[in-house]
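Quick one:
INPUT:
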């Protein structure tokens, strides 16, 4: 058995490894990380307007009308983050909407959840907008490209062998003659 016959990655035998590979393939076919950041951005935006904050003996309760706006923004961000996982075709709309909602949360929802929802929402929306699916080559063109690569590799190898052969055939260079010193007569 040589290194050429050994598979690069042996097939896993357990169900966990197969499930992990299936999840990895699913994750790579959609804007997963952008959607995750958008969904996570919704949590602090919805959390802070409805929660009581205690700082030592000081209790802060934010009972404003912004609570309804924060809930709407948070739920929309959560829906956009999850929907982009299952419908990658809406990535441009979802990314732009997530960026706009994250910016709207700045004045509406306690500075975007004190920045903890604002920045992941902006970054996640940008990631969702910029994601593009892999372009798969048709089987015919993929096979032709592989054949073309093999032919190019063979041509390069032939040229390299020719250059090496030419170098071996060339006579060795003659050693440089020392410059003759001119003598001056007096």
């Amino acid at each position: 058995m040589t290194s050429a016959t050994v598979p690069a990655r042996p097939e896993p035998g357990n169900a966990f490894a197969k499930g992990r590979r299936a999840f990895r393939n699913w994750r790579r076919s959609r804007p997963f990380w952008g959607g995750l950041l958008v969904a996570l951005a919704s949590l602090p935006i919805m959390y802070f307007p409805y929660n009581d904050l205690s700082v030592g003996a000081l209790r802060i309760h934010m009972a404003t009308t912004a609570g309804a706006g924060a809930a709407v923004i948070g739920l929309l961000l959560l829906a956009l983050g999850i929907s982009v996982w299952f419908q990658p075709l809406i990535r441009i709309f979802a990314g732009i909407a997530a960026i706009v909602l994250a910016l709207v949360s700045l004045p509406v929802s306690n500075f975007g959840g004190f920045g903890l929802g604002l920045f992941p929402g902006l970054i996640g929306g940008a990631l969702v907008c910029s994601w593009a699916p892999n372009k798969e080559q048709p089987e015919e063109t993929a096979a032709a490209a592989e054949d073309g690569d093999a032919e190019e590799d063979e041509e390069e190898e032939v040229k390299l062998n020719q250059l090496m052969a030419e170098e071996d055939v060339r006579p060795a260079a003659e050693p440089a003659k020392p410059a003759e010193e001119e003598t001056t007569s007096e």
